[in-house]
Every structure is written in C-alpha cells, then in structure tokens.
Design a protein that fits this description.
Elements (H helix, E strand, L loop, with lengths): L4 H12 L15 H14 L9 H13 L15 E4 L2 E4 L7 E3 L13 E2 L9 E6 L5 H11 L5 E3 L5 E3 L6 E2 L5 H6 E6 L8 H6 L7 E2 L3 E2 L2 E2 L3 E2 L3 H18 L23 E4 L28
Parallel strand pairs: 3-7, 5-9, 5-14, 6-9
Antiparallel strand pairs: 1-2, 4-8, 6-7, 10-13, 11-12
C-alpha cells in the first residue's frame, strides 16, 4: 500500500517539531510541493530521496536551520564535578571538573528524553558505542533525542565538555539493536559531519575541524567529512577509561574496524565499538579506530 507522504510529513512535523518553512521559506502547507522540496534536500545530503522527513532527514535539516541562525550558547552556571553516575553511585573520571556535567547538576539545561528502559537492578554492561550526532552542538543533540523519544548516556560537546544525560545503569535506546542497547553504554560526539558547516565552526570561535578523506565503512568509501576536535577525542579517552574501570568493559574493538561486524550484535560480544560496527545502515564514527584512544595499563590495550 502506498504511503501518504503528505500525511506522514504532517505527523512527523508534529512529533519532531520541524516546519515546512525549513524546506521552503515562508511555506506552511503539507502538500506535494513540500514533498518535492524534501526530496531535493535529501538528494543534496546524499540521503534516500523519498520525500518524507523522517528522523535522519530531520537531523540534517535541523543542522541547516541552526547554522543559519545566530549562535547562542547556554546561559547557565555549570556545576563542576569529577564524577559520573552508575547505579546512583559516583564513579571517578579523569577530566577537568569544570568540563563534566551530569543530570544531577543544579539547573541542568539539557533536554532529558523518556525514551529508555529504567533498570531497578544492576545490568550487565558489555560494550561501549560511539556515535557522532550530526548536530552543531550537544544542546541541539539533546533536543533531537528527546523529540525522537530515543536516548544516550553521554554527549561530548565541541569544547570537550562531557555531559551525562542518564545513569549508566539504565538501558538507553541509541544503537538501534535491542541486544546492544540492553548491554551497552552510548556516547554522542558533537559533529555536524558535512564539510559545508566548517565555516560555522570557524565563525563561532571553535576553529576548523579536521577533514576526514579516506574512511571506508561497510565496504563503501565515505564522502569527505568533518572529524572531531582533538579536545573531543581526549574527552572520549577519559570517558572510555572511566567506563572501562567502572563496568569492566575490556579494551578490545571489533576485528574489522572498517566493515560491518555481525558478531557485535550478539549479546555475548564485549568491548568498544563505533555505531557502524553494530549496524550496516550506519556510518558513524567513520575514520576512527577507538583502540587509538584507549588509556590505562598497556596490558589492557593488547
């Protein structure tokens, strides 16, 4: 049965919070003209051009809209903390306290999604999954997660701030694979991905991002894209060290880092992986081998 694309887009806009004017300036209708504009935008972004603004298209158009607005940072006095939270107990992280923020902070400004599975008993955590958020900031990423009713435990912002949205013991809906969600910890690292946003980062004082030119995922070469700032990668290392110490996740990565690894979808697999390792539909974080950012005892790194 054919999908009513106009009806789909109206329902998607109501759920996710986008407007027809994001695709056609000043436009308000959910009709074939909007569907055609969405298809054109999807082609530009290299997405499936079906004319329906689903979650992936929504992230891309939100980044475009936000890049055209004046940048306004969060106006709050962050709480300094050198701990994260695991089953409501503090765990240490070796990262500057002023750059660690958690859901327990006073006046925590980040949106909190209800799309996760709360756990009353300690869960067995076996893996760690790294994502890039395709957003311009972690604040925007948190809004996207809440609107989509999905979740992730941590975010790493452009300036290297580590933000904990949920207790590590809760099962966040971030990997799109049930067994992985049930047994993993996830992090979204802020990165808008497309090179056309490089000017936005420079204009707003973050500086130029590295350009990744030779990444190959699931047997396909990725287009040239933006990479992570060095401070984000150092924050990622600190976060992985804290999770390794607290949860016992071994310092190993899938055998094939640049291809889909079906074994990572099994509940028995343990270690650190990128999102593309547990889903052949994903490309994040293409160009990065997490083993390069392991910290700790050298025996753990083998």
């Amino acid at each position: 049965m054919a999908i009513d694309k106009e009806f789909y887009n109206e329902a998607s806009a109501s759920k996710l919070g986008w407007l027809p004017s994001w695709f056609i300036p000043g436009y308000t209708l959910f009709d074939k003209k909007l569907t055609s504009a969405i298809k054109s935008f999807q082609k530009e972004m290299g997405l499936l051009d079906d004319g329906m603004c689903g979650p992936t298209t929504y992230r891309r158009i939100l980044a475009k809209v936000e890049s055209e607005r004046p940048f306004v940072g969060l106006s709050w006095e962050p709480t300094s903390s050198d701990v994260l939270w695991h089953n409501n107990q503090p765990i240490k992280i070796n990262w500057p306290a002023e750059k660690v923020h958690t859901f327990k902070d006073e006046a925590f400004p980040f949106a909190i999604s209800e799309g996760l599975t709360k756990k009353s008993k300690p869960r067995k955590i076996k893996s760690f999954v790294a994502h890039w958020d395709v957003c311009l900031s972690s604040s925007s990423c948190a809004d996207v997660l809440k609107n989509r009713n999905v979740s992730v435990h941590f975010m790493i912002d452009n300036n290297g701030d580590i933000i904990q949205l949920h207790d590590i013991n809760d099962a966040c809906w971030h990997a799109g694979v049930g067994t992985v969600n049930e047994n993993s910890v996830g992090v979204e690292i802020s990165n808008a991905y497309y090179t056309k946003y490089q000017d936005w980062y420079i204009k707003n004082g973050f500086g130029p991002r590295p350009i990744i030119t030779d990444a190959k995922i699931n047997g396909k070469s990725l287009d040239e894209h933006l990479g992570f700032y060095d401070i984000q990668l150092r924050a990622l290392s600190a976060l992985m060290q804290a999770i390794h110490s607290a949860c016992g996740i071994p310092y190993i990565v899938p055998e094939k880092q640049d291809y889909y690894s079906p074994e990572t979808t099994k509940a028995s697999w343990q270690g650190f992986m990128n999102h593309f390792n547990c889903s052949d539909k994903k490309i994040d974080c293409g160009g990065y081998n997490l083993s390069e950012y392991f910290l700790g005892d050298s025996n753990d790194n083998k």
